[in-house]
Structures are given as C-alpha cells and as structure tokens.
C-alpha cells in the first residue's frame, strides 16, 4: 500500500488560484497519492485571517514539511511582515521562506521542443541555485534622511556561503552535472562577495569530480545572453540569483515555463519563477506549466520519481503537439484547456 503525502497548498494571489487549480489536477493524474491541505497567504491571508502569513499556514508547513504555492502580490513599500514569535521579513514571500528556514532556491532552466525561445539553435539546460537566507534581501533597509538618502545592509556569512556551495555541488553530483559556477562581484564587494567566493572554493575542494569556476555578475549576465548553453550549475548570492534566474528563464522559453523550489533542512516549498501577473489575472489565460513543473520537482522530493517523470513527459508531449498552448508561448488556449491536455497526457491516455 503506497503512502499518502500530505502537502500544504497555498493558492496565492493574481493568477495563483488559476495555475494552482491546474497543477493540482495534473499532480493528481500522476498516480502519486497526495492529500492537499489548503492554506492562505498573501492578500488571501490578509483578507481571510488578517495576516499575510497566518498561523494556520505556518503550522501546516511545519506539520507537512512540504508545500506548493501560487505567487503572492507584493505591496511595494508595504509594512514588514512580522510572524507570531517576532521574526520580521520584508515580504510575505520572504516570511514563507523564513518559516521553511529555506536557504536554497533552485530554478532549473531548460529549453523545450515546441517553445521558441530566443535561441532556436541552442539547447539550454542549467540550474540556478540561489542563496535565500541572507544577502541584500534581509530586509535591513533604513532611511537616513527621508526622500534624500537610505541604506540597506548586505549580510554574508561563511556558514551560509559554505552551506549553499555544498548544496550546489551535491545537486551537481546527484544530477550528473559537470560544472558549478559561482557568481559574485568580489572585486568591488571584497568583504561580502569575497567571503562568498572564498567559501565556495573551500567547499569545491571536497568535490574533485566537479569543475568549480566563477564569474562576476556583470560578465555572467552578458555570457547568459551570448551563450546560455555554456552554463551547467550556477550558485549565486540572493540578489544576483534572483535576477539571473528571470533572465535565464526568459531566454529559454519565457517566465511561464520556469519552475522552482525553496529548500531548508526540513521543509521544502515549491513555486513558479514568475509572479502573480495581475495584468492577466482572472482572464483564464495564465500558463500553468511553470507551477506544474514545480510540482514535478515536489514529486521528486517526495521520492515519487515515477510520478514526476509522468508529469514531465506529459508536459513535453503537450509542448511538442502544440495544441492548447497559452498565449504567452504562442497559442490561443486557456489555462483550463492546457490543464485538460496535460492531465490526459500525464495519464498517458493519448
Ligand atoms: P510577473 O512575473 O507577475 O509578470 C511579468 C510578466 O510575465 C507579465 O506580463 C505577466 O503577465 C507575465 N507572466 C508571468 N507569469 C505568467 C504565466 N504563468 N502565464 C502567462 N504570463 C505570465 O512579474 P511582475 O509583474 O513584476 O510582478 C507582479 C506581482 O507578483 C508583484 O506584486 C510582484 O511583487 C509579485 N511577485 C511574486 C513572486 C512570488 O510570489 N514568488 C515572484 C515575483 C513577483
């Protein structure tokens, strides 16, 4: 008898509920036994429970240790999110990562047959491992003189830098990848990015089978545009990883197909690379693929590799056949039509 996995499910804001609904249908068609526990966060949490990250959601994640979420709208310049217990975060997304004690955000980026990326002739297949527990996004921003000067604090520690480097090398070894490239600006930020880089090379010596290299962020951005196929695994501090992963996803096939996952030592939370897309929310045309592929990453983490493969095969067939594609990837289908097709192909009915 196969065990049932309990999963925290956060519909999120904007297009979140539409793509979460599609993803749940595909995951249920994969054959894995899943029980979803629906919880709120973001504007949904605020309106239903008076908090963008309600205690119910925190408790569910602690209990289930695995979750999948739709994107959350972020209130620009909004109040920090303070969790029960006092921890403060810049946004509800950052607070959820904090709840999971997440330190790694993983974004695989690949080109698919059937989606015209920017480079029709290149096969892109890389993974970006972004440090998410520190860096410049720790939320320590102060106004020195209102509207005239402000400062933000960039935090880098050896412990977190070694932890993310080790995570990236272990991922490379597990997925039979050959090279890990650290991205930094150590020539200017010698104390912070310099520490990140030194920690990276110290850990690299434990992985002699994998080539370690580094690039400065400006050069890495240029190389990503000129020849994205040259990258294998990239490990980056918080902000560079954030920017590079959208750049890479956009080059490979658009934001609508970029999956992701946040990993702590005990809790993992999966989410698409893109945001809440308020410009198309409620119109039924959001591309569900990024979240569906995030769901496949979640199945891997649950040890449901066969189900994960079924989902990925379903997505690949869907893209190759090209019927029901959403407008962002060149079709005129709806989220529901795309989901219907992927569900059928995941069940291998066609
Ligand atoms: P976005 O990713 O939401 O949208 C950028 C563009 O890509 C838009 O034109 C949108 O329509 C399109 N797009 C994104 N996802 C798509 C999909 N699945 N299918 C089709 N088209 C898609 O970025 P944004 O506009 O900068 O941000 C909107 C909101 O989302 C903001 O409040 C932002 O803070 C938030 N956001 C949340 C997360 C998260 O929850 N992890 C991540 C990024 C942004």
Automatic annotation (TrEMBL):
Keywords (A to Z) from UniProt: Oxidoreductase
InterPro entries associated with the record: IsoPropMal-DH-like_dom (IPR024084)
GO terms of biological process kind: isocitrate metabolic process; tricarboxylic acid cycle
Source organism, top-level taxon: Bacteria
Record has Ligase as a keyword: no
EC number of the protein: 1.1.1.87
Domain Isopropylmalate dehydrogenase-like: 6-342
Molecular function terms, GO-annotated: homoisocitrate dehydrogenase activity; isocitrate dehydrogenase (NAD+) activity
Family: Belongs to the isocitrate and isopropylmalate dehydrogenases family.
PANTHER family per the UniProt record, alphabetical: DECARBOXYLATING DEHYDROGENASES-ISOCITRATE, ISOPROPYLMALATE, TARTRATE, ISOCITRATE DEHYDROGENASE [NAD] SUBUNIT ALPHA, MITOCHONDRIAL
Name under which the protein is recorded: Homoisocitrate dehydrogenase
Organism from which the protein derives: Caulifigura coniformis
